[in-house]
Structures are given as C-alpha cells and as structure tokens.
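Quiz preparation item.
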C-alpha cells in the first residue's frame, strides 16, 4: 500500500527545510505572543508600589519594552518573543533591581513577583522571585532547565541515516517522552498522534501524522515539547505538541560557519539482529552557515542559513545469506532558511516565508515546501495582540519503484490575546483555524477540510490562584470517492487550577482536566481501494487528568511530582468486514464496527523530578517515572484484529530514569577562554517479550559532551565540540517484533558514536 511505503519513508527520513521570510516586524515577528506579569511590593511593608518603571530586554527583542505598575502595583509586559530576558525595576526612593536569565517560552504567561528595598534599608537580599516554578500553568513538558541551552543538550537522531541535528532530539530527556521506531511516543500515544508547529503553522504530515519538516538546531532559536495539560490553543493531538521558532535578523551583522562529523571508524560494536543484513556506519555529518543583519536599520532585517547533511551506511550480508555482495545506503538532504523582517510601525508587522527541503535516499526522494504569510499587531495600547498566519505545505514522495504520492495542506489561523482586570487579572485568548488537505496518488484522491476555534482564559486571583479554562470546537470533513462525504465535529473542554499557597511564586499545587482529539490521517482514507468510511466516524480522542505539585526547595532548584492519566475515548482503525469484502474505517465498538470490541488504551504515570534552571553557569535535572500502559489498541496504522485482549502494550516501559547536568568553566579573567561540559543519562525498563511478563534487559545510555570556546574579540567566538553518545556502548533491544514462533529483537540501541564539530560565530 502507498500508505505503508510512505510510512516507511517517513520513518527513515527527516525532512529539512529551506526558508525565505520577509516583511516581519520585530525580531520575533509572528512568534511574539508571550507575556510577563506580576506585582511589585515594598520589601518592608509588603504593600504594592505604584509607578515602578519596568524594562524588559533580550537578545530576542528588538529594542526594549517598558511598562509602569498601576495603583495596585501590578504590571504586565506583552508583545514579547520567546527568549532569555533581563527585567529591571526602578522607582524613586527604592533601590533599583534587575533580574537576568529570565526564560520566557513561546505563547506562555510568566509571573514574576518583586520585592523592592528602600534606599536607606540594609543590604537585604530582595528582588524578583526566580522562575523555576511556573505558577501560572499546569502544562507539562520541556522544563526551563533546557531553555537557551539547546546546543548543549541535543542528542543524536534515532534515524540510522539521519545526519540532521534536529532540535527535538533532546525530547527523550523530557519526562513522558520515549524515542521509538518512527518518532516520539508521548504519554503512551503512538508516533502518529503528535502535532508539530513551526512559527505558528502546522507542519504535521497530512497522510501519516508524522513530522514533515524537522529543522536543524542551527536554524532555530526555540523548541519545546508539551507533553500534557495543554490549553485549547493547542489542537489536533492525542500525544504531545512540538513547537519550533525560527530566527529573525537584527540591527547587528552576525552569523556563523559550522561543520559536524561522525566518522564510522569510531563507532562501537553493533549487536547483530539475526537478520540477513548487518548495518555499520561509514560516515555522517552536516555543515553550513548562517548570516543576519539589517537592510534598513530599525526597519528591515534579514536572516539566511543553509545546512546540507549526508550519511552512508554499509550493509553486509550475514553468514548463510544467499546474497554475499556488500552494499551502501546513502542519504542526502539540504536545509536552508532565509528571513527578511520588515517593521510597518511599532505596533504592526507582516512576514512572508518560503521553505523547501529536498532529501534523497537509496529508495527514493522526498521534497517538501512550505510557504507562509504572517501578520502580527497590537491594539488598545498593547493590551490586545492579534496574530494571523497562512501557509501552504507541500510534500512529494517519489520512490524508486512504485507510485508517486503528493500531499498538500493549505491553512489559515488567527489568534487574539488581550488583558483585562475584572475582579482578577485575565489573560484571554481566542482563535480560529482552517485547513484544506489533499492526498493524491495515481487513480486516487483524498481531500479533507478542517475547521476549528477556541476560547480560553487564564485568570489570576490575589496572586494565589490561577484558573485556566477554555474549550475547542473542531470539525473535519472527509470526502470518499463516489460515496459522498463524512463530517466529524466535537467539543473539547479543558480546565485547570493552579494554587500558589503563599503567593511567592515558589510553590504550586495544580490539577487539570482536558479532552483531546486528533485528525483522521488521509493515509487511512485511501489505504486500499476497498475502504468504506463509517458515516458516524470520529477522530482519535482521549481524556486526560493531571495533578501535581512543585516547590522551590533552595534557590533556583525545584522539586516536583506529577500524576498523569490518559484514557482513550475513541480509537480509529481499518476494521475488516465480516464478509471479507474489504475494510471499514471506523471507531471499533461503534457505528459500522459496533460488533467489534471497543478500542482501549490507558496510560498512568507518576513522575518525580528535581531540576535546577540554567543560572550561574550550570543547570541540571533528574527524574524518575513509573508508568503503566494497557489496552488493546496501539495506533491507527496497526492492524486491527479484534482478537487481542486488553494487556500491557508494546510501548509499556514501567520504569524510566532521566538525568542531565552541565557546567560552564572559565579560564581567564577576560573570559576569552571557556568551556562547557555536560552529561545525560537515560535508563528504561526492557520491552515485553511474552504475555507472562518477560522483558528484555534494562536499556540505558550515557552521553557526554565538551565545548571549548575561544573569543578573540567580544563579538566573535570559535567553538570546538566533542560529543560521545552511548559511552558504554550498551546494546539492548530497542524494538521487538514477531520472528519465527515468538517475539524477538529486530532493532538494538545505536552503538557508541563520536561526533566532532567546529563553529565560528561573529
């Protein structure tokens, strides 16, 4: 089937992209949608202080943002791109205070509480409460421990041929995320159930639901993984959300030149899978350059970057194989990003993007293109933010043998954010979105339309309670050739409560309930010529309940525990007809598949985590997750036999330990020479081999890195990089499948590899 071939190609190739964007307005352009809020009080009397001048600056922000506290000492700074900020507080008769290294994530509201000391007071240590605990949100996922340090925590791609150093490679260090064949499994969901966002646009493959444009870290300024508790602004996922933001130019001319190489000679021993062919890495690497600067100072800027990547695997027949010839499997890809940013006025900007990404494998090629238009503006004295995005994503899969397939996705979305004070401080959002999807192959065409909208409100009461409430309404229309159409529509409510018991931003207790639903992949609609759509068809949907707490035990170090429960509401599968005349795309247990058992999947997880944010030259985290994944449903692309009882599912790994730490070292007082050293560890229970509960051995991997940096001038830096992955060369099974009369490993951990890199930044 074309869907199967497309899935195999998607699982083995990470598609890059070439981007050209122009007419954007600040450095962030359409990505500027985050907010900093809080209250300024007198350190002695604890009374609110009005008329405090607050200034926010960041390398991600063109210029600075300045606001003044109101009569209740409250403030909010809007129109901020994601980045690392310095926030300064000043008022007559009080000692000025500045808080640096404040991490602000895309689309988030961060609360900073402030105590100012009078000029005549003693040298007491007052100021902004550090932000290791986000008391405004019950969202789980990537922690600020990674913020601004992506180049120091990235792992290697799970794809054997993937030379692209993609930003999401760090995701397995995030609790509730596992790296599995084909992508990321988040909270027990399959790799087909995540959503991927790039600069406010979806880059989710319409055919399979996989990542269609996985960019190199060199071409991104921000990436995060949302694993649960996401608000209604996030849609179309029953797994997790991956957000990425591309850079824009500034008034300073700067850029980089880089090269990274993984030689096969330094690879560790690979465990034999027992299959006919044994793989060995010959080489893998990428190189490229970026450049940004002004075209018209304070008005028009540009950013450009390019990074080709290549790899080669040597494939050797095993003893007893009838074919004794040695072959090579090569992969080549090109990613490049260009951006022009244009400031219409201080409150309005617009951007246009063109992104393309060719890649070639031995088995064929994949070409992806993304065109995008963004508008961002502020109204009512910056109290209302409006963002409008439109895009076209095209993906062409050309196998060396077989049918060529094409998928086109047209999308438009609009979002508005506004502030208000009615009893509480409200940060309200609303938005609408529309997508037109088409999957074509010779003799078949599967179009679909998707419409959605949401409203949400984050209301902060007395600096102690934050109520996040909202709902999404999504509609998907599928057209079946010669048989009319099927329309699905559902409401997805979400509500969460965060309590800051002592109103000091150092402790939070939270809980959230949400209903999530995905999209119906077009690869299922035309998987065979004998597919019939159930008139009552519904997309994948699940319920989620999250509860937990987090507390800053010492300065900048937080301890937390989270419980997550996910329950599948509606599965989605190709169910065989009773008369064996074809299959029905239906929800097992309802509609035309009412005589089939209902799809079931339950995921329960408890995570305990201790983390330190990136301050004073070091950062770190350690977490332990206990989980249980049971049911009879694996994914929409898994064959549905209706014979399997509810059981532990293949992705079940009851115990997972994650740890990461890094340290910055400086060698001279002029700070020209410095180094970064770090290590990460991932250990997990083995995979199930039998119903009796037998598992493969414990899987673990230890990675280390070293950065040595030299700054010949203040604006220049040369970096030498060394990464060693899987230092101990652990070779435990990473995937099992039916083999002979039982289950056997068919994929092992990637062996020890050494990656060398050099870059020059100016």
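Solution:
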């Amino acid at each position: 089937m074309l869907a199967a071939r497309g899935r195999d190609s998607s699982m083995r190739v990470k598609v890059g992209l070439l981007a050209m964007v122009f007419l954007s307005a600040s450095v962030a352009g359409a990505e500027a949608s985050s907010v900093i809020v809080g209250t300024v009080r007198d350190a002695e009397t604890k009374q609110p202080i009005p008329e405090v001048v607050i200034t926010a600056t960041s390398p991600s922000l063109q210029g600075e943002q300045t606001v003044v506290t109101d009569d209740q000492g409250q403030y909010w700074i809007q129109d901020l791109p994601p980045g690392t900020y310095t926030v300064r507080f000043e008022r007559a008769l009080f000692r000025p205070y500045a808080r640096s290294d404040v991490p602000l994530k895309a689309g988030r509201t961060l609360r900073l509480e402030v105590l100012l000391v009078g000029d005549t007071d003693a040298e007491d240590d007052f100021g902004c409460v550090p932000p290791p605990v986000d008391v405004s949100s019950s969202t789980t996922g990537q922690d600020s421990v990674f913020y601004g340090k992506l180049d120091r925590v990235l792992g290697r791609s799970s794809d054997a041929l993937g030379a692209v150093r993609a930003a999401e490679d760090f995701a397995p260090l995030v609790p509730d995320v596992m790296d599995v064949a084909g992508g990321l499994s988040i909270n027990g969901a399959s790799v087909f159930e995540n959503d991927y966002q790039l600069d406010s646009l979806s880059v989710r493959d319409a055919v399979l639901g996989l990542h269609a444009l996985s960019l190199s870290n060199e071409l991104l300024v921000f990436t995060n993984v949302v694993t649960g508790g996401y608000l209604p602004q996030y849609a179309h996922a029953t797994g997790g959300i991956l957000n990425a933001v591309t850079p824009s130019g500034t008034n300073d001319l700067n850029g980089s030149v880089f090269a990274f190489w993984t030689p096969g000679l330094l690879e560790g021993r690979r465990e034999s899978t027992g299959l006919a062919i044994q793989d060995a890495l010959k080489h893998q690497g990428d190189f490229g350059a970026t450049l940004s600067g002004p075209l018209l100072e304070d008005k028009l800027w540009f950013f450009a970057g390019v990074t080709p990547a290549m790899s080669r695997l040597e494939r050797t027949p095993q003893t007893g194989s009838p074919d004794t010839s040695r072959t090579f499997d090569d992969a080549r890809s090109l990613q490049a990003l260009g951006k022009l940013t244009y400031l219409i006025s201080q409150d309005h900007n617009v951007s246009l993007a063109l992104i393309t990404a060719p890649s070639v494998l031995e088995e064929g090629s994949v070409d992806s293109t993304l065109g995008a238009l963004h508008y961002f503006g502020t109204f009512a004295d910056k109290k209302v933010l409006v963002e409008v995005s439109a895009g076209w994503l095209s993906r062409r899969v050309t196998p060396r043998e077989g049918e060529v397939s094409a998928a086109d996705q047209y999308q438009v979305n609009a979002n508005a954010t506004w502030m208000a004070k009615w009893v509480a401080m409200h940060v309200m959002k609303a938005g609408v979105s529309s997508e037109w999807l088409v999957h074509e192959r010779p003799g078949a065409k599967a179009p679909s339309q998707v419409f959605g909208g949401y409203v949400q409100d984050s209301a902060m009461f007395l600096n102690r309670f934050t109520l996040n409430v909202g709902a999404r309404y999504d509609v998907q229309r599928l057209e079946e050739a010669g048989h009319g159409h099927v329309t699905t529509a559902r409401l997805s409510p979400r509500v969460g409560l965060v309590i800051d018991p002592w109103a000091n931003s150092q402790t939070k207790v939270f809980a959230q309930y949400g209903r999530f639903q995905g999209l119906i992949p077009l690869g299922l609609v035309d998987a065979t010529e004998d597919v019939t759509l159930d008139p009552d068809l519904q997309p994948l949907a699940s319920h989620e309940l999250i509860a937990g707490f987090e507390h800053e035990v010492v300065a900048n170090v937080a301890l937390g525990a989270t419980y997550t429960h996910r329950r599948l509401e509606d599965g989605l599968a190709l169910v065989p007809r009773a008369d064996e005349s074809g299959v029905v795309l239906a929800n097992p247990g309802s509609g035309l598949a009412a005589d089939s058992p209902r799809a079931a999947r339950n995921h329960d997880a408890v995570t305990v985590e201790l983390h330190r944010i990136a301050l004073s030259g070091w950062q770190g985290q350690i977490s332990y997750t206990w989980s249980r994944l049971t049911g009879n449903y694996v994914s929409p692309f898994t064959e549905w036999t209706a014979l399997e009882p509810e059981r532990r599912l293949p992705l079940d790994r009851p115990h997972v330990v994650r740890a990461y730490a890094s340290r910055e070292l400086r060698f001279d007082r002029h700070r020209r020479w410095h180094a970064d050293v770090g290590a990460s560890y991932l250990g997990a229970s083995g995979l199930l081999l039998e119903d009796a509960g037998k598992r493969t051995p414990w899987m673990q991997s230890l990675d280390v890195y070293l950065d040595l940096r030299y700054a010949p001038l203040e604006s220049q830096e040369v970096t030498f990089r060394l990464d060693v992955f899987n230092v101990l060369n652990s070779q435990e099974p990473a995937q099992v499948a039916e083999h002979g009369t039982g289950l056997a490993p068919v994929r092992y951990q990637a062996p020890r590899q050494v990656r060398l890199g050099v870059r020059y930044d100016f």
